[in-house]
């Protein structure tokens, strides 16, 4: 099964409030200078939540599959990561 096929088994209930945030945008500039592009968060996320645009990280939190990989990958501990509020986020799609 491909990553795209696995992602299709999930359903998303978007929260209006992001459960992900960048603590300090300047750390991302340091990170890019040190690790280059794609940054660790960009390359590890299977759902393409993070992208580098106009010298900053864009967080498309509504795509998040809540695996937590980005949080672990960030060498600066710069991602504020919580689960979505109750009833929001992902669930398995049945049938
Ligand atoms: S890995 Fe962390 S510091 Fe690096 S760009 Fe991503 S959020 Fe920023």
Please supply descriptive tags for the structure shown above.
28% helix; 6 strands; Alpha-Beta Plaits; alpha+beta; 95 residues; 4 helices; binds iron/sulfur cluster
Query: Count the helices. How many?
Result: 4
Main β-sheet description: 2 strands, antiparallel
Task: State the helicity in percent bands.
Answer: 25-40%
| Order of secondary-structure elements | HEEHHEEHEE
Label the CATH architecture. 2-Layer Sandwich
Radius of gyration, in Å, reads 14 Å
Q: From the helix content, strand content and strand pairing, which structural class follows? A: alpha+beta
Largest sheet, order of strands side by side?
A: 1-6
Uncertain residue ranges:
none
CATH class: Alpha Beta
- The beta-strand count equals 6
CATH topology: Alpha-Beta Plaits
Tell me briefly what this model is.
With 95 residues, this protein is of the alpha+beta class. It has helices spanning 3-8, 25-35, 40-44, 69-73, and strands spanning 10-13, 20-22, 50-53, 56-59, 79-81, 89-92. The chain has a single domain, classed as Alpha-Beta Plaits (2-Layer Sandwich).
Explained architecture:
By secondary structure, this protein is an alpha+beta fold. The strands form 3 sheets. Strands 1-6 form a two-stranded antiparallel sheet. Strands 2-5 form a two-stranded antiparallel sheet. It has a two-stranded antiparallel sheet with strand order 3-4. It has one domain (3-92): Alpha-Beta Plaits. The longest helix is centred in the N-terminal third of the chain and has 11 residues, at 25-35. 17% of the residues are buried. The two termini are 17 Å apart. The protein has helices at 3-8, 25-35, 40-44, 69-73; strands at 10-13, 20-22, 50-53, 56-59, 79-81, 89-92.
